[in-house]
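A favour between colleagues. Tell me how you read the following sequence-structure pair.

===
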Amino acid sequence: MADTTARVLRLLSLLQAHREWPGPELAERLEVSPRTLRRDVDRLRELGYPVHATTGPAGGYRLEAGTAMPPLLLDDDEAVAIAVGLRTAASGGVTGIEETSLRALAKLEQVLPSRLRRRVNTLQTQTVAVRGWWPTVDPDTLALLAQASRDHERLRFGYRRRDGTESARLVEPYRLASTGRRWYLVGWDTDRRDWRTFRVDRLTSPLATGARFGPREPPPGYVEESVVAPISRYRAVVTLHAPLEVVADRFPGPGATIEALDEHSCLLRTGGDSLEWLALTIGMLGLDFTVHDPPELAGYVQLLAARLQASTAPPLRQ
C-alpha cells in the first residue's frame, strides 16, 4: 500500500508539472506497466482529480481544471513562495483580500514541515509591512479586466481623470500592470484611436460587452513608460555612452526602459519627481551621457556641472 500511495503521489506530481504526458513515457517514468498506470489514474480520479485520457498511438494523460479544488503537490520552494505571496497579499492593495490571504496562509502553515515553517516564520518576523496611503482595488474588478484581456473582449466603463473630469470609455484591453502600489489597465481606446493607460481605482462600472476584437500590440516600451509617467513629474530621455549590458547592471530602477542604440550607447527613459534626483541618479552611474529631454533637466545638469567645477580650488597653503 505504501508503494502504491507513493507511486500515485509521484504520478500526480508529474501531471501537475507537465501539460500532457504520452502514456508510454509516463509509464516509463514511473517504472510501471501501462495497465498499472491506468489503475493509478483511476485512483486519482476517485480522489477528485480530473485526469483526461486520449487513446490511440499518440494518446496520453493530462490534468484538467476541475469544478472543485483538489489538494496540490508542492515542492519546498513552491510552498515557501506561496506562503510569502500570501503574506504579501495580506498587506497589499486589493480590497478585502487581506482576511482571505491570512486564512489560506494559516491552512498552509498547518501542514508545512517544520523545516519549511521555520523559513516562512523567519521571513514573517523579520519583515515589516508598511501600509500605504494609496487606494485599494476590488478583486472582482481585477478578475473582470484580466478575463477580458485574455479573451480579447471589449470593455465599457466610466473613468475619472486626475483633474476630476469623468468620461465613458470603450476599450480593447491589453494587459493589467502593477507597480506594487497601484493597478493599471493598458488598452486601445476605440474612440480616441490610441493607446491609453487607466488607473483601475478610477474605473467605475466596468462591463464586458461580449464584442471580440483582434489582438494588437502597443509600441515597444509603452507599458512601462505609461505606468511610470502618471506618477512622475519629469520624464527624462538620455543617451548613455556605454553598452546596454553595462547600463542594465547599474540602473535596475523600476519604470526605467533601456534601449540599445548601437554597440557603444543606449537610450534611457526614466522618471522622477525632482530634477535634482534625476541629475544625481544619472550622474552617479559613472557614465558619459547626453540629456535630450526635458529641457529643464539639461539646464540643471549644466548648472550642477558649473557649481561642481567652481567648487574645486588649489590646496590651502600651510
About this structure: The mean pLDDT is 81. The first strand starts at residue 21 and ends at 22. The chain has four domains: 1-63, 76-126, 139-229, 234-311.
